[in-house]
Amino acid sequence: MITVLKTKENPLFLANYLRAKYVFKFARLVEGGNVSNLYFERYEDTNILIPSKNEQQNISKLILKIDKLITLQQRKLKLLRTLKSGLSFKLFNKKHLNNLSQISLDQIGQTYSGLTGKSKKDFGHGHAFYVSYLNVNQNEIGNPKQIDRIEIDKKQNLVQKNDIFFTISSETPEEVGLTSLWPVSCKSLYLNSFCFGFRINTKMFIPLYLGYLFRSKYFREKVLPLAQGISRYNLSKNNVLKIKIGQEEIAIQEKYAKVMNDLDSDILRQKKKVKELKLCKKFLLQNMFI
């Protein structure tokens, strides 16, 4: 059910004013168990302070300008992501790669396991760190700022720069075998239990190139059929190592890796712009409606 509020005040001003100043107050008036309801009778007597029509209009114009800027920057971000997706499809072309010399993953590297023998009490403290499942799942290139603490354990495998992580367990097959390249050297860094690491031991492939190749449609089509399960899907390391990929020339690998990495930098800058504009709007709303 939706309550429609008819008012002579500026609707854009009023909507932002109520959202910024009264949303938590109204939340306390919610009733119900499984289905929550906010009845109009509960808040119809709420007194609010309204500025002059002229001031409402000026505030609304400012909010509208910021909203338009946010929309514009979000549109640019979407275009960059679309460009990256199309570029990945073109650079890692299935037909072209299938015509090259085929190399299986076990010929170019070896795997290692993530953390073992750990319980909840072992996480969140200590002098070592680990790369979380979420970090691997969400980032084509791992984010060193999103690592979590754990105690040092010399029995565990340590992560090295340019290792590539694979997710091995998920509720959906689409999230199995997602990869993330680790871009930096870190002391005492481990990998979470629901992933395995792949360490390249050859100069036939550039790690950054593989980082992008492994997230491309070309490679994902090879991984998805390997996901096994019903309610939860798992991936075998041995099956992954049997996957064959086309061996591109090193010069071309370098070129493709740079193009994709530069585009990632553009996307990161654009995401920062959107975030800053949203924070700007939030700050203005909080300070306008004191």
UniProtKB/TrEMBL annotation:
**Which controlled-vocabulary keywords does the entry list?**
DNA-binding, Restriction system
Q: Does the keyword DNA-binding apply?
A: yes
Give GO BP annotations, semicolon-separated: DNA restriction-modification system
Residue span, Type I restriction modification DNA specificity domain: 5-78
Q: Which family does it belong to?
A: Belongs to the type-I restriction system S methylase family.
The record's Pfam families line, in alphabetical order, gives: Methylase_S
GO MF assignments:
DNA binding
The name this protein goes by in its record: Type ic specificity subunit
Q: Which domain of life is it from?
A: Bacteria
